[in-house]
Design a protein that fits this description.
DNA-binding; RmlC-like_jellyroll (chains A, B); Arc Repressor Mutant, subunit A; 23% strand; homodimer; six-stranded antiparallel sheet; 2 domains; Tscrpt_reg_HTH_Crp-type_CS (chains A, B); 252 residues
DNA sequence: CGGGTGTTTGACTTCAGTCAAGTTGTGTGG
DNA sequence: CCACACAACTTGACTGAAGTCAAACACCCG
């Protein structure tokens, strides 16, 4: 039931003709349909477009693409990155299932960042103009959509805090604690998880170099804060890690 | 016509009982009513609450306050700041006339930052629950509101870029270029303006120290990029300053 | 099994921070 | 209007956290 639609071939992006359904999606308590009753959820389902598979490394959209759809992540992980005028890339976020991609494009109808799948992933395509019509007569959906946009603003403000006045150690601890709580919210173990991004990507996101990330991992390992094996992370002492993230524990 | 309402005394915040009017406000082409026809603008006007004067240094709202209103700046300048767990303050933005304050509070109904007036200022109070009803049947307003939220997301992403991988020189040049373009959009001179914030506040925003800002100002002065007199800035060579901001000019 | 990418570790460098002293500006009360 | 006090800013000397460069090592995949 999966085929490449010849009219819309994007490398690594295939289109699943099975319609997505919010009601049966495990993410519906975190995603756009949160709090909707069955009738409203049905209406939302009807406007949601194709389900797309995005292969690891493939772009879902790129800076400068015209904006048509928001994307809800069903499965997998993405990174979003900006490029400065001198061509340097900055990762602005890592997104996981239940999160929405593309909200920064609403302002100008052009995407301001590129979204790349960190592993084979699946998204629901949400045509924005149709969504907007629906928002007009579904106050619950409108409210939740605003919450999601606002949440994105809040998230970015906390990254500004992190980049603006935290030390490397604190940044990295905060990063791990943040991932942990997001996995927990999705029903996964908060203490053991797989990093979906490379050391280089973590460093880029945190405003640090790959070497610094590597050294920090080694230090946290030595301090018995973490067990690390490649991209597998186990938090051995979450309270202390949180204290390091909060800046109340120096961690020599 | 200006009096302190005894029921709502906030230090430095007085309430002007004259109703605000979007139609006569010089900011209506940048602010929420952008693009509305006369009839719709009238409807928006009717839901807009009091006009408030906020004295220099006074808080419009604080972290943790319950969210009731968005605020549109009619006049003056604000800063918004976050506080990290260890009590360090991070300025997340400087806002000027025509910009909206409080959008980060929608997600949890609590303000996530504190807004402080940098000079005597005036804002329009926009009760959010009333606004939301209006958004339901004014698609043009809905669209523009989404654009403004999205713009805030984009703005923050570009600050992340700045904090994440620009050098001090580049950060500061980018900051000045950004201010310049915002003054230009408001019909003021893009090349001569008054800084409304202290060196310390600039440093905090840019993730640098007050000493670094001072040294950068001196260097830009010596390089004939700026004329500086206290908080008065004159850009002597905007193209070169833009080149420094873009990272294409090193500026020894 | 070999090649390439991704990661770790060490030695050295540098940019921006810290500390300290001095200067200029501002606002208040005599 | 001046004098004083305090805040804001500037400048210099020194320090240190994180970056750069380089080499070695580990893991993955054909």
């Amino acid at each position: 039931m999966i085929r490449e639609l010849p009219s819309l071939v994007i490398p690594g992006v295939t289109i699943d003709v099975l319609k997505a359904s919010c009601a049966t999606c495990s993410m519906h308590q975190l995603c756009l349909p949160m709090g909707l009753d069955d009738k409203d959820m049905e209406r939302l389902d009807q406007i949601i477009g194709r389900r797309r598979k995005v292969a690891r490394g493939a772009n879902l959209f790129r800076i400068g693409d015209t904006f048509q759809n928001l994307y809800a992540i069903r499965l997998g992980h993405f990174k979003t990155c900006q490029v400065s005028q001198d061509g340097v890339e900055q990762i602005t976020g890592f997104q996981m299932a239940g999160e929405l991609l593309g909200m920064d494009a609403i302002s100008t109808d052009l995407h301001h960042c590129t979204a790349v799948a960190l592993e084979d992933s699946e998204v629901c395509e949400i045509p924005f103009s149709t969504l907007q019509q629906l928002l007009g007569d579904m106050p619950t959906l409108l409210r939740h959509f605003h919450r999601m946009m606002s949440q994105e603003i809040t998230r970015e403000q906390s990254v500004m805090l992190l980049l603006g006045n935290m030390q490397a150690t604190q940044r990295f601890a905060a990063f791990l604690v943040n991932l942990s709580s997001r996995y927990e919210a999705r029903g996964y173990s908060p203490n053991t998880f797989q990093l979906r991004m490379s050391r280089e990507e973590i460093g880029n996101y945190l405003g640090l170099t790959i070497e610094s990330i590597s050294r920090l991992l080694s230090r946290f390992k030595k301090e018995a804060l973490l067990r690390v094996s490649n991209r597998e992370i186990e938090m051995l002492d979450p309270p202390r890690l949180k204290a390091v993230a909060a800046g109340s524990q120096t961690c020599n």
